[in-house]
Automatic annotation (TrEMBL), chain A:
<dbReference type="InterPro" id="IPR016155">
    <property type="entry name" value="Mopterin_synth/thiamin_S_b"/>
</dbReference>
<protein>
    <submittedName>
        <fullName>Sulfur carrier protein</fullName>
    </submittedName>
</protein>
<dbReference type="InterPro" id="IPR010035">
    <property type="entry name" value="Thi_S"/>
</dbReference>
<dbReference type="Pfam" id="PF02597">
    <property type="entry name" value="ThiS"/>
</dbReference>
<dbReference type="InterPro" id="IPR003749">
    <property type="entry name" value="ThiS/MoaD-like"/>
</dbReference>
<dbReference type="InterPro" id="IPR012675">
    <property type="entry name" value="Beta-grasp_dom_sf"/>
</dbReference>
UniProtKB/TrEMBL annotation, chain B:
<feature type="active site" description="Schiff-base intermediate with DXP">
    <location>
        <position position="114"/>
    </location>
</feature>
<comment type="function">
    <text>Catalyzes the rearrangement of 1-deoxy-D-xylulose 5-phosphate (DXP) to produce the thiazole phosphate moiety of thiamine. Sulfur is provided by the thiocarboxylate moiety of the carrier protein ThiS. In vitro, sulfur can be provided by H(2)S.</text>
</comment>
<dbReference type="InterPro" id="IPR008867">
    <property type="entry name" value="ThiG"/>
</dbReference>
<feature type="region of interest" description="Disordered">
    <location>
        <begin position="1"/>
        <end position="20"/>
    </location>
</feature>
<dbReference type="GO" id="GO:1990107">
    <property type="term" value="F:thiazole synthase activity"/>
</dbReference>
<feature type="binding site">
    <location>
        <begin position="223"/>
        <end position="224"/>
    </location>
    <ligand>
        <name>1-deoxy-D-xylulose 5-phosphate</name>
    </ligand>
</feature>
<keyword id="KW-0963">Cytoplasm</keyword>
<dbReference type="InterPro" id="IPR033983">
    <property type="entry name" value="Thiazole_synthase_ThiG"/>
</dbReference>
<feature type="binding site">
    <location>
        <position position="175"/>
    </location>
    <ligand>
        <name>1-deoxy-D-xylulose 5-phosphate</name>
    </ligand>
</feature>
Length: 69, 268
């Protein structure tokens, strides 16, 4: 597969074209819960990660709860 | 400094009794101390402090995941059955705060949010315009919104009007430990509010937490005063007792302040 460039948590990464949100999340964490994803500033629900493909130039943010407030 | 409201009759029940629960959006809490988790030197210190505080609800922030991070604040909260209250700390605009709240709802499976929209890094004071807009949008989206707000009675009222489940005015800037700088405004907010008022931010030590409750606040939210104390778990215990004492004093109905002495013994 040809690689494509996406931005994951602010860093540019090369991933296989056609990769899903779920595949990108798996690069960062294996936590079964407590994680949320925004794709280009919109929430993608966990149930939709597998079937949401990424396109070149997409911005993915993967967040979790940390100490604060 | 103590509350001077004397007009309302003392309710019959004291703090800690079943009918003195804090109720927010229909949910009951036995503890009126909401804790934050920022500033603790380690998860173990945080855990000990949370347990000592006997809090039932605690805030967390949402941040980009760090693959190197081991241990999670969520595990600590889950282990002790403490309700997690995500915040939108670090957001400067309504749009940012709305997205962060939605991410928190997705990650943590709660529609409760401590809404924080700050104006700048220097003061960390709420931006009232962005705050009100974010509150309105989140209420429309089905969130239970608990906004961190200025000690401004007008803004607090506006936040209640758009459907916030509580209002959380600051005593002083976040992490400052300056206490309650404008107790009069806090009293005005309490007098007018139809939702719980939670004193959020500025508390430095136990007497200030008690003062918040004496002024009529329904609860106190604090973090730094405990997590950065020299002995966090001991300060957590002090805060727990201070909130209870202040609540009891409020419910007891304090004596009026007098200009001159009044003998407490019968005349000779």
């Amino acid at each position: 597969m040809r690689p494509m460039r996406v931005t994951v948590n602010g860093e540019t990464r090369e991933i296989d074209a056609g990769s899903s949100v779920a595949e990108v999340v798996a690069l960062l964490t294996s936590a079964p819960s407590g994680v949320a994803v925004a794709l280009n500033g919109e929430v993608v629900s966990r149930g939709a990660w597998e079937r949401t493909p990424l396109a070149s130039g997409d911005r993915v943010d993967v967040l979790t709860a940390v100490q604060g407030g | 400094m103590t509350a001077q409201t004397t007009s309302s009759p003392a309710p019959p029940h004291g703090a800690g009794e079943p009918d003195d629960a804090l109720v927010i959006a229909g949910e009951r809490f036995g503890s009126r101390l909401v804790m934050g988790t920022g500033g603790a030197p380690s998860l173990q210190v945080l855990e000990d402090a949370l347990l000592a505080s006997e809090t039932e609800m605690t805030t967390v922030a949402m941040r980009r995941i760090d693959p190197a991070q081991t241990g999670s604040v969520l595990d600590v909260l889950r282990r002790h059955g403490i309700r997690v209250l995500p915040n939108t700390a670090g957001c400067f605009t309504a749009a940012d705060a709305v997205l962060t709240a939605r991410l928190a709802r997705e990650a943590l499976e709660t529609n409760w949010v401590k809404l924080e929209v700050i104006a700048d890094e220097h003061t960390l004071l709420p931006d009232p315009v962005e705050l009100l807009e974010a509150a309105e949008r989140l209420v429309d989206d089905g969130f239970v919104v608990l906004p961190y707000t200025n000690d401004d009675p007008v803004l607090a009222h506006r936040l209640e009007q758009v459907g916030c489940a509580a209002v959380m005015p600051l005593g002083a800037p976040i992490g400052s430990g300056l206490g309650i700088r404008n107790p009069h405004n806090i009293e005005l907010i309490v007098e007018r509010a139809g939702v719980p008022v939670v004193l959020d931010a500025g508390i430095g030590t136990a007497s200030e937490a008690a003062q918040a409750m004496e002024l009529g606040c329904s609860a106190v939210l604090l973090a730094t005063a405990v997590t950065r104390a020299q002995r966090p778990a001991v300060m957590a215990q002090a805060m727990r007792d201070a909130v209870r004492a202040g609540r009891l004093a409020r419910r007891a109905g304090r004596i009026p302040v007098r200009r001159y002495a009044q003998p407490s013994s019968p005349p000779v």
